[in-house]
Amino acid sequence: VALQTLSVNGKTYPVSDKTNVTSSILNLTDRAVYLKPSHPVGILRSVIEDKLNDPHHSFEIYNDFKPAVTVHENFDSLGFPEDHPGRSKSDTYYLNDCHLLRTHTSAHELECFKNINGFVPGHVGKTDKPGFLISADVYRRDEIDRTHYPVFHQMEGGRVWKREPDNQHLLKIKEDLERLEKTLADDPVKLVVEDNVSLEGNPKQEYMTMEEVDLCSRHLKRSLELVVLEVFKRKLASMGNVKGEELKVRWIQAYFPWTAPSWEIEVFWQNNWLELCGCGLIREDVLLKAGYEQNQNIGWAFGLGLDRIAMLLFEIPDIRLFWTLDERFHSQFKEGTINKFKPYSKYPGTIRDVAFWLPTDKNFDIIHENDLMEIVRNVAGDLVECVKLIDSFTHPKTGRKSLCYRINYQSMDRNVTNEEVNELQDKVRDTLVKLYGVELR
Ligand code: PHE
Prior knowledge:
This protein has 441 residues and is an alpha+beta fold. It folds into 2 domains: 31-67 and 102-330, 2-Layer Sandwich (BirA Bifunctional Protein, domain 2), CATH 3.30.930; 350-440, Alpha-Beta Plaits, CATH 3.30.70. It is built from 11 helices and 16 strands. The chain has an 8-stranded mixed sheet. A 4-stranded antiparallel sheet has the order 14-15-13-16, with helices on one face. The chain is globular. The chain starts with a strand and ends with a strand. The model has no long low-confidence stretch (mean pLDDT 96). Residues 104, 106, 156, 256, 259, 278-280, 301-303 line the site of phenylalanine (PHE). The site of phenylalanine has 11 residues, from strand 11 and strand 12.
Protein backbone atom coordinates (compact mmCIF):
# COMPACT_ATOMS: atom_id res chain seq x y z
CA VAL A 1 0.00 0.00 0.00
CA ALA A 2 1.47 3.35 -1.02
CA LEU A 3 1.50 5.91 1.77
CA GLN A 4 0.01 9.33 1.08
CA THR A 5 1.98 11.09 3.77
CA LEU A 6 5.00 10.40 5.90
CA SER A 7 6.01 11.70 9.25
CA VAL A 8 9.42 12.91 10.44
CA ASN A 9 10.06 14.16 13.98
CA GLY A 10 6.33 14.63 14.49
CA LYS A 11 5.73 16.60 11.30
CA THR A 12 3.71 15.32 8.37
CA TYR A 13 4.83 15.58 4.74
CA PRO A 14 2.79 14.63 1.66
CA VAL A 15 4.66 12.18 -0.57
CA SER A 16 5.31 12.74 -4.27
CA ASP A 17 7.06 11.11 -7.24
CA LYS A 18 10.28 12.39 -5.76
CA THR A 19 9.89 10.50 -2.45
CA ASN A 20 12.66 7.95 -1.98
CA VAL A 21 13.16 7.91 1.79
CA THR A 22 12.45 4.55 3.41
CA SER A 23 11.06 3.66 6.82
CA SER A 24 14.40 2.23 7.98
CA ILE A 25 15.98 5.64 7.38
CA LEU A 26 13.09 7.55 8.95
CA ASN A 27 13.48 5.39 12.05
CA LEU A 28 16.93 6.87 12.58
CA THR A 29 15.77 10.50 12.57
CA ASP A 30 14.79 10.39 16.26
CA ARG A 31 17.94 8.76 17.63
CA ALA A 32 20.18 11.85 18.15
CA VAL A 33 23.18 9.72 19.20
CA TYR A 34 25.49 12.76 18.84
CA LEU A 35 23.74 14.32 21.86
CA LYS A 36 24.52 11.44 24.18
CA PRO A 37 27.33 12.60 26.48
CA SER A 38 28.98 9.19 26.58
CA HIS A 39 28.62 8.19 22.93
CA PRO A 40 31.90 8.46 20.94
CA VAL A 41 30.36 10.98 18.55
CA GLY A 42 28.90 12.93 21.47
CA ILE A 43 32.23 12.93 23.31
CA LEU A 44 34.08 14.22 20.24
CA ARG A 45 31.43 16.88 19.66
CA SER A 46 31.82 18.31 23.18
CA VAL A 47 35.62 18.27 23.01
CA ILE A 48 35.50 20.41 19.86
CA GLU A 49 32.77 22.74 21.13
CA ASP A 50 34.69 23.37 24.34
CA LYS A 51 37.94 24.02 22.52
CA LEU A 52 36.45 26.54 20.09
CA ASN A 53 34.58 28.32 22.85
CA ASP A 54 37.65 28.63 25.09
CA PRO A 55 38.01 31.27 26.48
CA HIS A 56 35.71 33.74 24.74
CA HIS A 57 32.48 31.84 24.15
CA SER A 58 32.14 33.46 20.74
CA PHE A 59 30.09 30.59 19.36
CA GLU A 60 26.38 30.01 19.92
CA ILE A 61 25.71 26.28 20.03
CA TYR A 62 22.84 24.79 18.05
CA ASN A 63 22.38 21.09 18.63
CA ASP A 64 18.75 20.37 17.93
CA PHE A 65 17.97 21.30 14.38
CA LYS A 66 15.76 18.59 12.91
CA PRO A 67 16.89 16.75 9.76
CA ALA A 68 13.90 17.50 7.50
CA VAL A 69 14.73 20.72 5.61
CA THR A 70 13.68 22.36 2.37
CA VAL A 71 15.50 22.00 -0.94
CA HIS A 72 16.00 25.73 -0.65
CA GLU A 73 17.81 25.47 2.68
CA ASN A 74 19.98 22.53 1.68
CA PHE A 75 20.90 23.62 -1.86
CA ASP A 76 19.40 26.83 -3.32
CA SER A 77 20.31 29.20 -0.48
CA LEU A 78 23.92 28.07 -0.80
CA GLY A 79 24.14 28.62 -4.56
CA PHE A 80 24.19 24.99 -5.69
CA PRO A 81 23.64 24.93 -9.46
CA GLU A 82 20.43 23.28 -10.73
CA ASP A 83 22.37 20.33 -12.19
CA HIS A 84 24.65 19.67 -9.21
CA PRO A 85 24.96 15.87 -8.71
CA GLY A 86 24.30 16.25 -4.96
CA ARG A 87 20.71 17.12 -5.82
CA SER A 88 20.00 13.83 -7.59
CA LYS A 89 17.59 11.25 -6.23
CA SER A 90 20.36 8.66 -6.31
CA ASP A 91 22.40 10.63 -3.74
CA THR A 92 19.79 12.33 -1.57
CA TYR A 93 16.77 11.22 0.45
CA TYR A 94 13.75 13.24 -0.63
CA LEU A 95 10.57 13.44 1.44
CA ASN A 96 8.81 15.04 -1.51
CA ASP A 97 9.50 17.70 -4.19
CA CYS A 98 10.46 20.42 -1.76
CA HIS A 99 11.62 18.61 1.38
CA LEU A 100 14.59 16.34 1.97
CA LEU A 101 16.75 14.96 4.75
CA ARG A 102 19.63 17.44 4.98
CA THR A 103 22.80 16.20 3.29
CA HIS A 104 24.98 18.58 5.33
CA THR A 105 24.76 20.95 8.29
CA SER A 106 25.35 23.88 5.93
CA ALA A 107 21.58 23.74 5.40
CA HIS A 108 21.26 25.77 8.61
CA GLU A 109 23.94 28.38 7.96
CA LEU A 110 21.60 31.04 6.64
CA GLU A 111 19.30 30.80 9.66
CA CYS A 112 22.23 30.96 12.09
CA PHE A 113 23.76 33.97 10.37
CA LYS A 114 20.34 35.64 10.60
CA ASN A 115 20.19 34.96 14.33
CA ILE A 116 23.28 37.01 15.12
CA ASN A 117 22.23 40.26 16.72
CA GLY A 118 23.44 43.50 15.16
CA PHE A 119 23.96 42.19 11.63
CA VAL A 120 20.49 42.34 10.10
CA PRO A 121 19.28 45.96 10.18
CA GLY A 122 16.07 46.48 12.14
CA HIS A 123 16.04 42.93 13.48
CA VAL A 124 16.77 41.80 17.02
CA GLY A 125 18.75 38.60 16.68
CA LYS A 126 18.52 35.66 19.08
CA THR A 127 22.16 35.81 20.13
CA ASP A 128 24.94 38.34 20.60
CA LYS A 129 27.62 35.78 19.79
CA PRO A 130 29.31 36.48 16.42
CA GLY A 131 29.80 32.80 15.68
CA PHE A 132 27.88 29.53 15.74
CA LEU A 133 28.44 25.79 15.93
CA ILE A 134 25.79 23.41 14.62
CA SER A 135 26.04 19.66 15.22
CA ALA A 136 23.55 17.33 13.62
CA ASP A 137 22.85 14.05 11.86
CA VAL A 138 23.06 14.26 8.05
CA TYR A 139 21.81 11.81 5.44
CA ARG A 140 23.22 10.56 2.14
CA ARG A 141 22.43 7.57 -0.04
CA ASP A 142 25.68 5.70 -0.41
CA GLU A 143 27.43 2.37 -0.68
CA ILE A 144 27.45 -0.15 2.18
CA ASP A 145 30.66 -1.01 3.97
CA ARG A 146 32.31 -0.58 7.36
CA THR A 147 32.90 3.15 6.96
CA HIS A 148 29.67 4.13 5.18
CA TYR A 149 26.30 4.54 6.81
CA PRO A 150 23.35 6.49 5.38
CA VAL A 151 23.39 8.70 8.46
CA PHE A 152 26.49 10.41 9.81
CA HIS A 153 27.29 13.57 11.74
CA GLN A 154 28.74 16.95 10.98
CA MET A 155 29.64 20.05 12.91
CA GLU A 156 29.23 23.34 11.10
CA GLY A 157 30.98 26.48 12.23
CA GLY A 158 30.49 30.09 11.17
CA ARG A 159 31.99 33.41 12.27
CA VAL A 160 31.36 36.97 11.08
CA TRP A 161 32.80 40.42 11.62
CA LYS A 162 31.26 43.77 10.83
CA ARG A 163 33.44 46.24 8.99
CA GLU A 164 34.22 49.19 11.24
CA PRO A 165 35.53 52.71 10.70
CA ASP A 166 39.33 52.96 10.59
CA ASN A 167 39.56 49.21 10.08
CA GLN A 168 38.90 48.53 13.75
CA HIS A 169 37.54 45.13 12.75
CA LEU A 170 40.94 44.17 11.39
CA LEU A 171 42.53 44.93 14.73
CA LYS A 172 39.97 42.69 16.43
CA ILE A 173 40.63 39.80 14.05
CA LYS A 174 44.36 40.31 14.49
CA GLU A 175 44.12 40.23 18.24
CA ASP A 176 42.13 37.01 18.24
CA LEU A 177 44.47 35.55 15.65
CA GLU A 178 47.47 36.26 17.86
CA ARG A 179 45.78 34.39 20.69
CA LEU A 180 45.17 31.40 18.41
CA GLU A 181 48.75 31.44 17.17
CA LYS A 182 50.13 31.61 20.67
CA THR A 183 47.99 28.71 21.87
CA LEU A 184 49.25 26.63 18.95
CA ALA A 185 52.87 27.60 19.58
CA ASP A 186 52.69 26.87 23.32
CA ASP A 187 51.38 23.35 22.89
CA PRO A 188 53.75 20.51 23.80
CA VAL A 189 52.66 18.70 20.64
CA LYS A 190 54.04 20.47 17.61
CA LEU A 191 51.76 20.97 14.66
CA VAL A 192 53.60 20.89 11.33
CA VAL A 193 51.50 22.68 8.74
CA GLU A 194 51.88 22.45 4.98
CA ASP A 195 50.04 25.15 3.06
CA ASN A 196 50.95 25.78 -0.56
CA VAL A 197 47.50 26.82 -1.73
CA SER A 198 47.47 30.08 -3.66
CA LEU A 199 44.49 32.17 -4.74
CA GLU A 200 45.07 31.10 -8.33
CA GLY A 201 42.05 29.11 -9.47
CA ASN A 202 40.57 29.70 -5.99
CA PRO A 203 39.93 33.43 -6.19
CA LYS A 204 38.96 35.83 -3.45
CA GLN A 205 35.66 37.67 -3.57
CA GLU A 206 35.95 41.09 -5.07
CA TYR A 207 34.32 42.94 -2.19
CA MET A 208 37.01 41.84 0.27
CA THR A 209 40.40 43.53 0.53
CA MET A 210 43.59 41.48 0.37
CA GLU A 211 44.23 42.23 4.03
CA GLU A 212 40.77 41.04 5.04
CA VAL A 213 41.21 37.83 3.04
CA ASP A 214 44.59 37.24 4.63
CA LEU A 215 43.44 37.82 8.22
CA CYS A 216 40.10 36.07 7.88
CA SER A 217 41.59 32.96 6.27
CA ARG A 218 44.36 32.79 8.85
CA HIS A 219 41.78 33.07 11.61
CA LEU A 220 39.79 30.22 10.04
CA LYS A 221 42.83 28.03 9.45
CA ARG A 222 44.34 28.53 12.90
CA SER A 223 40.93 27.84 14.53
CA LEU A 224 40.65 24.53 12.71
CA GLU A 225 44.27 23.62 13.36
CA LEU A 226 43.59 24.15 17.05
CA VAL A 227 40.67 21.73 16.85
CA VAL A 228 42.73 19.11 15.03
CA LEU A 229 45.59 19.49 17.49
CA GLU A 230 43.28 19.18 20.50
CA VAL A 231 41.59 16.06 19.20
CA PHE A 232 44.67 14.20 17.98
CA LYS A 233 46.74 15.25 20.97
CA ARG A 234 44.20 13.48 23.16
CA LYS A 235 44.56 10.40 21.01
CA LEU A 236 48.35 10.53 21.23
CA ALA A 237 48.09 10.92 25.01
CA SER A 238 45.76 7.92 25.27
CA MET A 239 48.38 5.95 23.33
CA GLY A 240 51.02 7.04 25.84
CA ASN A 241 53.06 9.53 23.85
CA VAL A 242 52.90 13.30 23.92
CA LYS A 243 56.37 14.69 24.52
CA GLY A 244 58.26 15.58 21.39
CA GLU A 245 55.38 14.40 19.25
CA GLU A 246 54.64 16.02 15.92
CA LEU A 247 51.37 16.10 14.08
CA LYS A 248 51.29 16.84 10.36
CA VAL A 249 48.41 18.62 8.68
CA ARG A 250 48.05 20.13 5.22
CA TRP A 251 45.74 22.57 3.48
CA ILE A 252 44.48 21.75 0.01
CA GLN A 253 42.41 23.72 -2.46
CA ALA A 254 38.69 22.96 -2.57
CA TYR A 255 35.50 24.24 -4.11
CA PHE A 256 32.14 24.89 -2.45
CA PRO A 257 29.43 27.01 -4.08
CA TRP A 258 28.99 29.18 -0.96
CA THR A 259 32.59 29.92 0.04
CA ALA A 260 35.48 31.66 -1.75
CA PRO A 261 38.30 30.95 -1.46
CA SER A 262 37.75 27.39 -0.20
CA TRP A 263 40.00 24.77 1.38
CA GLU A 264 40.12 21.38 2.98
CA ILE A 265 42.29 20.35 5.89
CA GLU A 266 43.85 16.90 6.07
CA VAL A 267 45.80 15.21 8.85
CA PHE A 268 48.56 12.65 8.37
CA TRP A 269 47.58 9.68 10.51
CA GLN A 270 48.91 6.11 10.33
CA ASN A 271 50.55 6.77 6.98
CA ASN A 272 47.48 8.23 5.32
CA TRP A 273 46.24 11.72 4.61
CA LEU A 274 42.82 11.84 6.16
CA GLU A 275 40.28 14.40 4.98
CA LEU A 276 38.74 16.20 7.93
CA CYS A 277 36.89 19.32 7.01
CA GLY A 278 35.82 21.62 4.19
CA CYS A 279 35.82 25.35 4.74
CA GLY A 280 36.22 28.81 3.27
CA LEU A 281 35.39 32.48 3.49
CA ILE A 282 31.63 32.84 3.37
CA ARG A 283 30.30 34.23 0.09
CA GLU A 284 28.64 37.58 0.52
CA ASP A 285 25.57 36.19 -1.31
CA VAL A 286 24.76 34.03 1.70
CA LEU A 287 25.09 36.98 4.06
CA LEU A 288 22.87 39.12 1.83
CA LYS A 289 20.26 36.35 1.71
CA ALA A 290 20.37 36.32 5.52
CA GLY A 291 19.47 40.02 5.43
CA TYR A 292 22.91 41.55 6.01
CA GLU A 293 23.78 44.90 4.40
CA GLN A 294 25.92 44.89 1.31
CA ASN A 295 29.65 45.48 1.71
CA GLN A 296 29.52 45.60 5.49
CA ASN A 297 30.49 42.13 6.66
CA ILE A 298 33.06 39.39 6.25
CA GLY A 299 33.30 35.90 7.69
CA TRP A 300 34.11 32.23 7.40
CA ALA A 301 32.43 28.81 7.61
CA PHE A 302 33.50 25.19 7.98
CA GLY A 303 31.89 21.74 8.01
CA LEU A 304 33.57 18.92 9.89
CA GLY A 305 32.70 15.22 9.60
CA LEU A 306 32.55 13.68 13.08
CA ASP A 307 32.12 9.93 12.48
CA ARG A 308 35.41 9.16 10.72
CA ILE A 309 37.37 11.01 13.39
CA ALA A 310 35.43 9.30 16.19
CA MET A 311 36.06 5.88 14.58
CA LEU A 312 39.75 6.57 14.51
CA LEU A 313 39.98 8.03 18.03
CA PHE A 314 38.04 5.24 19.67
CA GLU A 315 39.29 2.57 17.25
CA ILE A 316 35.79 1.56 16.22
CA PRO A 317 36.02 -1.04 13.42
CA ASP A 318 32.51 -0.68 12.00
CA ILE A 319 30.36 2.45 11.74
CA ARG A 320 27.19 0.45 12.53
CA LEU A 321 28.39 0.26 16.14
CA PHE A 322 27.46 3.93 16.55
CA TRP A 323 23.83 2.86 16.16
CA THR A 324 23.77 -0.29 18.25
CA LEU A 325 21.64 -0.45 21.40
CA ASP A 326 23.98 -3.03 22.92
CA GLU A 327 25.19 -2.08 26.40
CA ARG A 328 28.45 -3.92 25.76
CA PHE A 329 29.21 -1.06 23.38
CA HIS A 330 27.83 1.90 25.32
CA SER A 331 29.23 0.90 28.73
CA GLN A 332 32.77 1.30 27.35
CA PHE A 333 32.68 5.08 26.96
CA LYS A 334 32.42 7.99 29.30
CA GLU A 335 32.07 11.73 29.00
CA GLY A 336 35.29 13.57 28.17
CA THR A 337 37.43 10.45 27.74
CA ILE A 338 38.98 9.01 24.61
CA ASN A 339 39.64 5.31 25.00
CA LYS A 340 40.10 2.35 22.70
CA PHE A 341 37.04 0.24 21.98
CA LYS A 342 37.39 -3.44 22.95
CA PRO A 343 35.37 -5.66 20.60
CA TYR A 344 33.04 -7.75 22.74
CA SER A 345 32.84 -10.54 20.24
CA LYS A 346 33.21 -11.06 16.55
CA TYR A 347 30.19 -12.76 15.09
CA PRO A 348 30.76 -14.64 11.85
CA GLY A 349 29.42 -13.29 8.58
CA THR A 350 27.49 -15.15 5.90
CA ILE A 351 28.16 -14.39 2.26
CA ARG A 352 25.44 -14.52 -0.38
CA ASP A 353 25.68 -13.45 -4.01
CA VAL A 354 22.87 -12.07 -6.09
CA ALA A 355 23.27 -12.06 -9.88
CA PHE A 356 20.80 -10.62 -12.36
CA TRP A 357 20.23 -9.34 -15.88
CA LEU A 358 19.29 -5.69 -16.05
CA PRO A 359 15.92 -4.99 -17.69
CA THR A 360 15.77 -3.97 -21.32
CA ASP A 361 12.12 -3.10 -20.89
CA LYS A 362 11.65 0.68 -21.05
CA ASN A 363 8.96 0.49 -18.36
CA PHE A 364 11.56 -0.12 -15.72
CA ASP A 365 14.07 2.30 -14.28
CA ILE A 366 17.66 1.36 -14.80
CA ILE A 367 18.92 0.55 -11.35
CA HIS A 368 21.48 2.87 -9.78
CA GLU A 369 23.94 1.18 -7.45
CA ASN A 370 22.60 3.22 -4.52
CA ASP A 371 19.11 1.86 -5.22
CA LEU A 372 20.40 -1.65 -4.73
CA MET A 373 22.18 -0.56 -1.54
CA GLU A 374 18.91 0.90 -0.31
CA ILE A 375 16.99 -2.32 -0.96
CA VAL A 376 19.53 -4.32 1.01
CA ARG A 377 19.53 -1.80 3.88
CA ASN A 378 15.77 -1.78 3.98
CA VAL A 379 15.53 -5.56 4.07
CA ALA A 380 18.48 -6.37 6.32
CA GLY A 381 19.04 -3.16 8.30
CA ASP A 382 22.15 -3.37 10.45
CA LEU A 383 22.53 -7.08 9.69
CA VAL A 384 24.38 -6.16 6.50
CA GLU A 385 28.09 -5.47 6.81
CA CYS A 386 28.99 -4.76 3.21
CA VAL A 387 27.76 -5.03 -0.36
CA LYS A 388 30.07 -4.99 -3.32
CA LEU A 389 29.95 -5.50 -7.04
CA ILE A 390 32.01 -8.58 -7.88
CA ASP A 391 31.13 -9.09 -11.53
CA SER A 392 29.70 -7.12 -14.40
CA PHE A 393 29.53 -8.11 -18.04
CA THR A 394 27.62 -7.41 -21.22
CA HIS A 395 26.49 -10.34 -23.35
CA PRO A 396 28.31 -10.01 -26.71
CA LYS A 397 25.30 -11.11 -28.80
CA THR A 398 22.25 -9.76 -26.98
CA GLY A 399 23.91 -6.67 -25.49
CA ARG A 400 22.22 -7.42 -22.16
CA LYS A 401 24.09 -6.49 -19.03
CA SER A 402 24.53 -8.77 -16.05
CA LEU A 403 25.64 -7.76 -12.56
CA CYS A 404 26.63 -9.78 -9.54
CA TYR A 405 26.74 -8.31 -6.03
CA ARG A 406 28.20 -9.98 -2.97
CA ILE A 407 26.39 -9.33 0.31
CA ASN A 408 27.94 -10.07 3.68
CA TYR A 409 25.30 -10.54 6.37
CA GLN A 410 26.82 -10.07 9.80
CA SER A 411 25.57 -8.63 13.06
CA MET A 412 27.65 -6.61 15.51
CA ASP A 413 25.71 -7.98 18.47
CA ARG A 414 24.64 -11.58 17.89
CA ASN A 415 24.73 -14.70 15.75
CA VAL A 416 22.54 -14.66 12.68
CA THR A 417 21.15 -18.04 11.64
CA ASN A 418 21.27 -19.48 8.13
CA GLU A 419 17.48 -19.50 7.94
CA GLU A 420 17.41 -15.82 8.80
CA VAL A 421 19.97 -15.03 6.11
CA ASN A 422 18.10 -17.09 3.52
CA GLU A 423 14.93 -15.21 4.29
CA LEU A 424 16.66 -11.84 3.97
CA GLN A 425 18.36 -12.86 0.73
CA ASP A 426 15.02 -14.03 -0.74
CA LYS A 427 13.48 -10.69 0.14
CA VAL A 428 16.34 -8.80 -1.52
CA ARG A 429 15.92 -10.90 -4.67
CA ASP A 430 12.12 -10.49 -4.75
CA THR A 431 12.37 -6.74 -4.24
CA LEU A 432 14.87 -6.37 -7.08
CA VAL A 433 12.44 -8.11 -9.42
CA LYS A 434 9.41 -6.20 -8.20
CA LEU A 435 10.92 -2.71 -8.23
CA TYR A 436 13.37 -2.91 -11.09
CA GLY A 437 12.23 -5.80 -13.29
CA VAL A 438 15.60 -7.53 -13.23
CA GLU A 439 15.86 -11.16 -14.32
CA LEU A 440 17.52 -13.22 -11.60
CA ARG A 441 20.21 -15.66 -12.64
N1 PHE B 1 29.01 21.19 3.80
C1 PHE B 1 30.30 20.84 3.25
C2 PHE B 1 30.35 19.33 3.07
O1 PHE B 1 29.50 18.63 3.55
C3 PHE B 1 31.45 21.31 4.12
C4 PHE B 1 31.58 22.82 4.20
C5 PHE B 1 30.91 23.56 5.18
C6 PHE B 1 32.36 23.51 3.30
C7 PHE B 1 31.05 24.94 5.26
C8 PHE B 1 32.51 24.88 3.35
C9 PHE B 1 31.85 25.60 4.35
O2 PHE B 1 31.25 18.80 2.43
